[in-house]
Every structure is written in structure tokens, then in C-alpha cells.
Amino acid sequence: MKEEVPVLEYSDVTMESRGTMVPVRLKLSDQGITFRNVKTGKVESLGATDLEVVNWQRLAGGYGLRIFTEAGNLYRFGGFKESEQSKLEKFFKNTYSKTMTEKEFSVKGWNYGAAKFEGAVLSFDVSSMPSFEVPLNNVSGCTTGKNEVTLEFHQHDDAAINLMEMRFHIPTSELAGDDPVESFQQRVMSKASVITATGDALAIFREVQCLTPRGRYDIKIYPTFIQLHGKTFDFKIPVTTVLRLFLLPHPDQRQHFFVVSLDPPIKQGQTRYPYLILLFSGDDTDYVELPLEEEELQEKYEGRLEKEITGAQFEVISKIFKGICNRKIVTPGNFTGHSGSPGISCSYKAAAGYLYPLERGLIYVHKPPVHIRFDEISSVNFARSGSTTRSFDFEVGELGGGVGFKLCLLHHLQLKLKNGGVNTFSSIEKGEYNRLFDYVNQKKLRIKNRGKMFVEMGGGRNDDFDDSDADEPDPYMRRVREEAKERDQDDEDSSEDEDFVPNEGGSDVAEEYDSFAGDSSDSGGDSEDEGSGEEKKKKKEKKERTKTKTKTVSEKPRKRKPKKEKDSNKPKRPQSAYFIWLNENREQIKKENPGISITEISKVAGQKWKTIENKKEWEVKAAKAKEEYEKAMKEYKASLKGQPSSSPAKKSSKKVAAVTVSPSKAGSGSGFKSKEFIDESSSSEDSDDKPLKKKAKKEPKKEPKKEESGGEKEEEEEEEVTSDEASDEDSGSGSD
Asked: Where is the composition biased (Low complexity) (predicted)?
């Protein structure tokens, strides 16, 4: 039985690309080495027979893998740990029969040595040891001077610092022969990534309309690059920089977009164009005959190109691009919009364009073009974002730190990406909603508020979308909503207008502002009594109706929930197995990672905890701690039962003590008055007594004896004020 070959996968390593380290996902199997760029999604592979030399070397901040191929190309991967060396060495020996040796570099810091060319790599050796290596495919130009050679390098857009140029001084050779400076330049240029137009073009297309960069260009296709020749600018695109090809039909069914994705992008001054977008009319046809023999076509392009190509112009040029660049052409899948076209009309950053749902992503053309892969989308959210219901927006956001996508319908489509970015496509017709929702659901993208989009019992989609930020964690908004609910509950109990009623705990202020109260400025008070009984009855019925319809905002202050007092005797909750393990290994993590912050400790600890296979030791400790906690809680609850509960009598007594009773000897209307009301000036007392007398005529006379007996139990200061008020009322009633 054949032994199964293990597969090694690394998702958090980096690869050297144009002078910087970019994140990749690396997979090593018996078929070869495959690596995928996390940002661009570009996949490259090295066959098992392509490997020549494999080295383990020290890199800045860690260890790396150096792979030299039969074709003379150098690949360098970083981000490995020292513990991975033995595993990789064993894998290369058993799988590829290659011995992985450790590569030593000179650290003397000398700036003079010997320059050696090996394949497409320039090595600068000091004392027979390499000091540094320069991949010549990163060189964009090479110029010479007297005893001097200058190398210029391609710039990486994502790198914070780029190496612009490097100069070598070459002493004059005493031996007769070729010039060493010229020889050095020729060897560099033979492997450098410099585009030189040699030979005839395979095909030429005249005056092709280009949307990005804008203008009309003559497109000349060479075996190794593509040239765009315009009236003002020229662009040369190496075929190795082409990532993807898209052929998209225009919604008017008469034109086609041909989109070429580039990495690195072409430049015009400081402007970068990561996409080349060509627009073709469906009526234009073309015929091309390639200047190559059938054997040469089969040998170089493996049957991807035919000698004679005819048909619509967009079909001809797309077939040639496919054969030269060795890339598949991506077309829209089974999605069909409300208008019958695979494209959805929308806007992005105030520019109108078209959004095309693909089999593995979304692409928007044309200004600016955006391509979003499904593996970049973290979540989709359908929500309301505007008042109009004729269109909706689609929001797309990127995955964590960074790309993931958030999808938000009704005025915009918002995709939330894993890298933290958000792309919003707006002004989409409402008729596209059902089809777009089915598409997102079919592709199994995570919809954040799926429950809100369905009717609770029916299971159908709801056309009323919620706010796009409804699921966002906002503690302040949550607290405001809770307080609003509390106020609404209070308003239900006491939201009606409270009018003054004698002998009831009403407010005098309510009578003054009551729209149905009598005119208190009339000192005589006889105008109200002159009305007939029918008028009084109508007023009473009208007042009852307004009570049921009108509601006023409660003037009560916001109720704040009192903070719960912590009981020091209450047992603390037990720790989980993870936290028990973390407390035991915290110091060890600090020793292994000196200078690590508190937040980084938790990240490192979480990764270590996942790698532990046998967690039985800490799970047993956690179970024991839980049993002790439950036992302690039983004892604590039993001790609470024996304690007497506090009665609320004190609070009620305080409220009663704050109210005094105003006696009336002459039968005038009497009511409850707060202590603050009594303490006001005598002038305010006189003005407030008038409406009291006026209402007293409607109320039956009451004996004030019991109230006087109750008032005798108040404090001395309150008794004096009450007696003075009683005397004033006696004099008033006598005059009447």
C-alpha cells in the first residue's frame, strides 16, 4: 500500500514581490508548490520538477524559505517559525528528494565585493558569502556611466518604502577584452523586466475606444507585452501583469465591455489604472491572420490560438488576449436582472455605471471599476436607507482589519469587506431587489439581518427594510432607546391632563393651564354659574372626549435605575478551563514574547489554546471549581432566607409628612398643598385662594374639625403657617 504524502498548508506567510513582502497562502503537496496572493487572488504554482535548490535562511523578524528554480527564478517566502525547519526539511526530502540546506549570509557590512550572476539573480558576495541578492525581474532599467552601472527598480504601490535605484562601481580591468561595464549591463538587461519592441506585432487594432484610460488607442499585441498607442500617451503592458479578463454585455444589448485586470497597474504620472476597459459595438466585425506557423502556435500557445480568427471585434480581441496571457475569460453567470440583462444599472461615488453579479464575485464598470471576490465579503445586510421606495442602495464592506462586504438594499447596495472597507452602489431600481436577494442567498453569503427580512409567520420577504445601521453595536443608542421605553411606560399611566380637583392630590398648575378651567381673573366668579345645565353638560362631555384623545408629554424627570449594591459575601462565579490555563501560563507567554502588550497576550494565548489537544487537566479543574461555586451559592441563598426583609413603611411616611392640610371654616373649597407651596409669599397665597373660593360654591361644605385635629400633629412652624391661612379664609368668607 502506497504511503499517503502529507500536505503542508500555511495561511499566514508572506512572499517577496517587487521589493516588499505580500501576504500569501502557501500549499505544499506532492504535485508541487502553490501560492495565492491574498489581496489580488492571483494563483501561481511551481511543479515538483521545477525545483532546483531549496534553502532555509534567516530573514528580518523571522525565518524564510528560499527556492531557486530550473528556469533561474528566485522565490522567497517569509513568516516561518524556527520550529518549522525540521518539518519542512523532512517534507522536501521525502516528497521531492531535495535536501534543504541553511543559507548563510555575510553580515560584515562591507560595500565592496564580487558581483555574480546566477540565472535571473544578481548576488553580491563579500568574503565568498552572499551579502544580498537582487532578483533581476524587479529591475526596470539599467544605465551606464564611466566605471558605473545604475539599476532602476519597479515600485510597489503598497510598500511604505521603495528601493528606487542601486549603483555599482566597476574598476577598469587591466586585461584586454570586453568592457566590464558594458558586459555588466548586458547581463542585467538580458534578465531584467524591461519591455523592448522587437519584431513585428502579432495583431493590430486601430482606433479602439478605451474608457479607462480614456481615449482612442491603437492596440498592438506582441508575444510578451501589449502596447497602447494614443495621440498623447503610450502604455506597455507585460502579459505577466494581466490577472483576469472579463467580457460583459452592455444592458442595451448592442455593446460589450472588455475588462483587463492588471497588477501592477499601468501609470500615467501619479494616476494608476488597475483596469483596462475597452468598449466595442456589437456591429463591428474583424479578421486577423497571425504571422505564425501552425507548429509554432501549438508549441508556444498549446492550441489556445488559431492562425485565422474572424467574427465580431470584441470576440476576436478577447480570444487573442486569452491565448497570449493564458487567462480565462470571465462572463456573467445565470443571473438575469429585472430588465432581462445580466447588468444592474446603479451609481457608485456619484457616477452612473453597471453592476454585474458573477459566479465568484461582483464587478462594477466603469468609473471607477471595482471587482469584489466572494472570499473578500464578510457579511451582507439588507436595510432601509432613504425615504423613497422606487430604488434601493447596495452596500458592500470588506473582511476584519481589514476587505469584507455589507449589502444594504433600498437606495444603496453596501458590501462590507473583510479588510474593513465599504463600497456603496446606489440608485438601484426596486424591481431588482428580489432577484438580487435570491442571488446573494444562492451564493451562501452571510446575511446579517435575515430574520428581519422575512415576515414572522408567513416566511415571505418584507418590502419595508430596516435602517442599514440597525445591527451596528451602538451602546449610546441602545441606552437612549431603553430610556425612551421607560418614559413611554410612565406616560401610559399619567399622560392625560390632570385638572385641579378639591380634596384630591391634583396640581394647582394644571388648573391654571387647563383649557377648560374657568377664568381665574374674574374676582366675582358668578359668570360660570349663569350658564344653563345643558351647556355644562356639553362642556363636560367635550372635556371627557379630549381626555381620551389628547396626551401630553410627562413633565416627570427621567427615572434612573438605581445601581445594584454588590454583596461582598456572594460567591464569585467559577473560571472556565481556558482562564485557569491562562492564569498558569501568563508569565510563560510574557517570557517568550518580551515587551508584549496586554491585548496581544490574549491573542497569543488564544492561538496556543487552540493548538492544545489534551485539555482534560484544566477541564477537570474547571468542573471542580463549578461544584464548589454551586455549593457556596446554596449556603449563601440559605443565609439570605433567615434575614428580615426591609419594609417600605419609612418611604411612605416621609411622603405623608411632606404634605399639610389647609382647614376651611366657612365652607370654601379646600385642597392639599405641598410644603413648598405654603412657604411662598403672602401675595401669591392671596392670588391662589381666589380660584379656590370660586370652586368652593360647587362643592358641598365639609367639617374641618377632623382636619384640624390632624394638623395639630405637625411641626410648630407648619402650625403657625396653617393657622394664619385659616384666619385669612375666615375673614374672606365673612365678607362674602
From this structure: 644-667
